[in-house]
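Checklist before submission:
- one chain only
- standard amino acids only
- sequence pasted in full

Submission:
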Amino acid sequence: MAMWNVETTDDFERRQRQFEKKNPNELQATFANLQRYLEALNEGGKPEIIQFGFIHREPQGVVAIDQKGGGKNLKQTRLYTYAWFDNLTLYLITIGDKKSQNADLKLCKQFMDSLRKSSDK
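Returned file contents:
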């Protein structure tokens, strides 16, 4: 069985460092859900049909993974990902909260546009 690779963007890495300082519990809960999603991909699940309560479908195939199941009183958190089935790569695009959601979705659109352009070459 093929294993998925995980690639991060610079924006994700910068925002992750902020979450480690300000929202470590939310980050831990979101990463636990990311691990479950990655395990489902590695078990042969197709990205578009994997369903968990912590998954939110966004435009252009982007999947947002939240903090659900990580405990009480956690701040709404979204880890935006894209699972590219052609090369078995799960991209971690950015992570944010409710306040940054609109900006995060714009960033995801830009990421997807550039990913599609680079794959067309």
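Reviewer check: The helical segments are 10-22, 24-42, 101-120.
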